[in-house]
Structure formats: C-alpha cells, structure tokens
C-alpha cells in the first residue's frame, strides 16, 4: 500500500488525533521521507517568513497547542530544530505527524536533527520502548532511526526583516502600556502570549543609525535595518540578499539554526556542508558538536566539566556570525523556563518548545517568528518620504541624526562596539516575535491529573 | 534579559497543588510544589552557590516537618542540598565516552584545555535536611521500626516533591526528591538522591526521617549506596525482566547496590506540658 495523496492526508488526520498509523504505512512514510531528505543539503536553505521551534520531546498535545498558537501547516512555515522524540509519552505520534507534514508539504516544513534523533539515545530515553509497546516490535523504531540519519544538520534562514510590523493584538493583563515603544517605532522584539496578546515590545536602538538614510553607508559590513536602496530590495532568498558570504546591503544577515551550537572544527557554514551526515550521531567531531554543544558565559572555547563536549563564549559566536554574515544563531537543546533566552547581545537565542517539560517542570514554551523582508515595505517607502504622511516623526529624527553624523562611527551598532573593532560590525538582528504558550490543558491528554499516589514506601 | 521573557508569574505545574500541610500531635508537615525557577532567580542562585544549578531546579519547593511546641524543624530544600555538592571538581566524574572524546579532540585542539567551572556536575549531595543547632541529633542504635511502618495504617497525608533533577546532558539522571506519608500515630519521610551515569555508575543516597508522634521521637537514617554500572547490570541480568527499565527505577535496584555509608541518629522532642 502506498502512502501518497489521500492516504497521506488520512494518515495526517489519524496522527492529529494522536492515533498511531499501521506499521506498513510507517515503513512507506519513512521511505518517502528519506527520498526527500536525501535531496536536502546538510544546511537547508529556508526563506522567511518562518516560525522556528525548539525541542518537542514527544509532548504531542503540546505540539498541537504549538500549531494552534503559531498557525497550522501549511498556512505557517515551520522549522523544527530537533529533539522530536524521547521523554514524553507520544514521541511516535509527534515524530510521525511532523514527518507526514514534511512529506505532504516539503517546502513548508523543515526538520533538522537533534541529539535525541539517534539510536543510542532513543534506546535509553524512551522512544525505543514506546515503539516496542505500541507495535510489539522494534521495526518502527528502526524505520524512524533510518530517517534520523538523513535529517539535515542545520538550516539557514534568509530574507528576514529587521523590524516587525506590529501586531494589533490587545495588551496582556500585566503589560504596562507606557512601557511599550511608540506604535511607529522600529520593532525589534515582540513577545505575545498564546492568545496573541502583547506581553512585551522592544524598539530597536531608537537613537542609533536605524534609518533608511544609511544609504550612504560607508561600511559594507554593516547592515542597515531597512533596505538601503530600492535596487537591493530584491525578493527574499535571492543572491543579492541571501548569500551567506558578504553580500552587502541586505536587510539582515542570515539566521543559522542548529540544535546544539557551534564546533571548533567549523568556522564557516560551508564546512558544515562538507560533512558526511548520513550516519548515527558520532561521539565526537563536528557533527556531534553541532548537536550537543552549549553557549556559556566564558571567553573562547571551553571543555564541559562532564569530560566530553564543548562550551563556547560570546566572542566565538560574534566572530562566527561576522565571518558568515549571520545576524543570529537560533538553537534549542537547553530547557529555559521562559521558553526562549537571548544571549551575548542577542547574537544567539535558545528556543524551547516543550511546555511543562516532562509533565512536571511548569515552564512555558516559545516559538520564534521571523517575518519576511517584503512585509516591511511600508516602512521603507515612508522613510523616503513617499508614504507615511505626518506620521514619520521618528524616522525623520533619525535621518537628521544620521546625516549629521556622516561617517556613522560612534552611534552605530553600540551592541558590540566594546567587544569588536569597527572592522567587525555585526549585522542588525532580525525582528523577532516570540509567541509564548503553556502546556495543553491536562484533560485534553486523556490522562488523569498527575497527583501523587499514596504508597507504603519504606 | 529576564524582563524580556514573559512567563506568567503565577504559572504552576498543572495538576499540582501549590502547597499543602497537615498537623498531628503538634507535628506540622508541609510541602510546596512550584515550577522550576526562572532566569532571574537561577542567576541569583548561581551566584550564591558558586555553581550552576541543575537544569530542572525546583528552587521554591520544599518538604518540612515542624514541631510546633518546641519550634524544632527539619527542612528539605534544593538550595541547601546543592550547597553540599562538591564545588571544586575534585570528585568530578567523567561521562562514559570521555576518554575516546578527549583523545580524538586533543589531536586537533590542544589549545582548548580549560575545563569550564569544574564542579561535581552529577549534583551528588549528602544532604540530610536543614535542622536547627538545638536540640541536635545524637547517634543512636535505635533503628527505624519497619514493622510499624509496614502496617496498613490509613495514610492521612501523602506527597512527593522533586527538589532538583538533571539529565546530565543525556548521560543519565540525577534527581533529589522527597516522599512523605503521615499515618495516625507516626510519619515517614524519604529524601532520595538518585544518580545514574550511563555506563559509569549508580548512586542512591537515602535520608529517612521517622517521627513517632506519641513519644516525640525523631529518628534520622542516612544510607549511601554506590555501584559501578557494569557490575549492577550483571547482577540485574540474573534477576530477569527488563534490565534497562529496572535501571531507571531506584526502587527496583536499591537492594542490589552495596551500602557505602550509613548513619543513624535520634532526637527526642519534649511534649507539650
């Protein structure tokens, strides 16, 4: 029986109801998925807009909540940064649903590999046992592991806008309206709750060079937050704005997504492209590091006290981003109570998408939305004086400031000036909209609330 | 950046009562269960402790037994437990594939030598609870009366509180948790540190606190067990069943792991006059 077309939609429907599909369909699905994934490079190119998600860990009902909050496939483009399986009770349904969606809408959903997508780890942390329990044999686990070997190691998002078009959502209960920037400010970060209410909003350095007047940009490595010249505002993902190597003038650098982090063996993204990924995750080497390493508040590279694995500091991230023309690294891998955590002057962010992790941590989850460049066209034109009417006070003000400043040294990218010399000016980060959500209600899981059961322990 | 992160301030793990208590014969037992700490409090704790707390740090949780007439109490919380973790790195363990990893690494990156903030990242603690100076526990020969605890007396209060948990970067588990059951005439509290470092070793460190309400007698027993991973696996193979599943459940393996440390102490609290 083949799993194409309507069969695939049927399988998606069944998995959405959290019911496993028959073994022969899994085999077929995994075969199709492998055919598809083998065509992907180690680093998948992805165009904004896209919604970036962190660890899922078999929390199927929370994955459904994620789709409710972030929009359904294929209406929303998704990039999942691995760790689909283990820990939670529904690794199988979660992974197979994502895989079905990948086969059904290959251009709408990107899956990259986490350290849990491995034979060795899944035998210890739940996925293997779950397959055995649900199918009575290890076949399905074996099919899935073969797919794991084909998953990409990273993704490169291009064409993201630097400033968000503000949502019109109402304010969340605890949000102070006075703390929000003006409605026409250049929004860099926005945090929304699961109901789309605004919890937080942050304008880009309002006194900095953030304006279209930096057309006369004297420093090619520096990005301007809005498209500097009309000729450069080509379609997202084109060579002009999307190359990872030094194309100047695009809105923001690319965003690299990996599960864990960087590796001392990898100084350029091209080196990731050269790896032979179609294997079990090795215990050492570049592929291992990409899936396992963590950022830490240190200088340079460090060794994990555990005796294996690297830690990397702010300078490593900033150099890597500069060298590869990145504005941000998005990664997952580490639990963060607030669902996301930006570090090192917003050059790297951890995104965590498993709320109430392991059904007991009580943490919230987050997803990161990157908007597409073109959606911001209104801002660009307005700053040229064509649009916006009398509404452009802020833009005008900064234009003047920039004009006076000519060479634009001191009030440019203040974020890193103390760390990096003028020759290493970082790219302006993409506009980032975080949607924060809590675990799906307990009763939707079809299992009783977790109350400790009294026992006569000794 | 913590102000960026908008976790609802009052969120708590679904299905959990925030705090509960019961009082019997002047002994008040209370527990509190809240979500893991947020970025701000974690930073604060890191500073105070001098080490990075475990990934899942239930810093607001506690389990406590108070004797209201005298004000004596024994308290179990994550901070005090972590304060007893080795912060020097002298007793640091290595993951199973560390040697292989190091050898391969050294060829290429001899310049990366610095081990970042060495400490006992297995979070092994010999924590026996936080108690006041006076009245203090004294060594005793009186064991905890297991026969009385085996009787099916009604359980008036029961709770299970996790203080911290860490996945050791997917190399096993370290977990400190408290279980407590209160019967009409007595109570038992078991605080267990369980650590499995895959392919390396197991540790179980139990602190049992027993209270006989009528006499005001409090017995504290500490039992530390330790075994190499491979040795335990061999033993378990002889017992049948799913060995991997057993190795995830300290209840099923404790009896197979040799005791390396044991203390027994007692304090008698004056009754209300």
Automatic annotation (TrEMBL), chain A:
It is an enzyme of class 3 (hydrolase). It comes from the Eukaryota. Gene3D superfamilies: 3.60.21.10. It holds the Pfam family Metallophos. GO terms for molecular function: metal ion binding; protein serine/threonine phosphatase activity. InterPro entries: Calcineurin-like_PHP, Metallo-depent_PP-like, PPA2-like, Ser/Thr-sp_prot-phosphatase. Residues 209-246, 391-431 are annotated as: Disordered. Residues 209-235 have a biased composition (Low complexity). Residues 403-412 have a biased composition (Gly residues). Its EC number is 3.1.3.16. Residues 112-117 form the Serine/threonine specific protein phosphatases domain. SMART domains: PP2Ac. It catalyses: O-phospho-L-threonyl-[protein] + H2O = L-threonyl-[protein] + phosphate. Keywords: Hydrolase, Manganese, Metal-binding. Belongs to the PPP phosphatase family. This is Serine/threonine-protein phosphatase.
From TrEMBL, chain B:
InterPro entries: Phosphatase_reg/MetRdx (IPR051330), TIP41-like (IPR007303). Belongs to the TIP41 family. It comes from Amniculicola lignicola CBS 123094. PANTHER family: GAF/PUTATIVE CYTOSKELETAL PROTEIN, TIP41-LIKE PROTEIN. GO terms for cellular component: cytosol. GO terms for biological process: TOR signaling. Residues 1-24 are annotated as: Disordered. This is TIP41-domain-containing protein. It holds the Pfam family TIP41. It comes from the Eukaryota.
